[in-house]
Amino acid sequence: MAGIVIKRLSEQEKKEMNIPERPAGSGSWSVWECEPSVFNWHYDDEEHAFVYQGKVKVKTQSEEVEIKAGDYVIFPKDLNCTWTVQEKIKKVYKFV
């Protein structure tokens, strides 16, 4: 299974992907936010997300990554992980 992919996108790439300028649902993107907490999560489908605010650590069996504001993240299908939300997170996401 592939790991979590984290990228920094250019303004042009964000525009081409129709990522909203502010965290608001639009088109195929939905908004999600969470206060500091720890929880387990499973991805039934591949998720693409853009983070506007916050910082989290996501731990899988094979890696631990830090995700923060400005990151574009791809979570692979069938991923099991533990989220540790360190600072309130706000993101848009969609399943592909």
Mean pLDDT: 94
Largest sheet: 7 strands, antiparallel
Low-confidence stretches: none
Tell me the name of the CATH homologous superfamily.
Answer: Jelly Rolls
Oligomer: single chain
Radius of gyration: 13 Å
CATH topology: Jelly Rolls
Helix content: under 10%
Structural class: mainly beta
Share of residues in strands: over 45%
Distance between the termini: 16 Å
Briefly, what CATH class?
Answer: Mainly Beta
H/E element sequence: EHEEEEEE
* Count of separate DSSP helical elements: 1
Please state the overall shape, judged from the principal axes of the Cα atoms.
globular
Please report the total strand number as a whole number. 7
Relevant terms:
globular; 7 strands; mainly beta; single chain; 1 helix
Description:
- The chain has 96 residues and is mainly beta.
- The protein has a single domain, classed as Sandwich (Jelly Rolls).
- It contains one helix and seven strands; from the N terminus they run βαββββββ.
- Strands 1, 2, 3, 4, 5, 6 and 7 form a seven-stranded antiparallel β-sheet that branches.
- The mean pLDDT is 94.
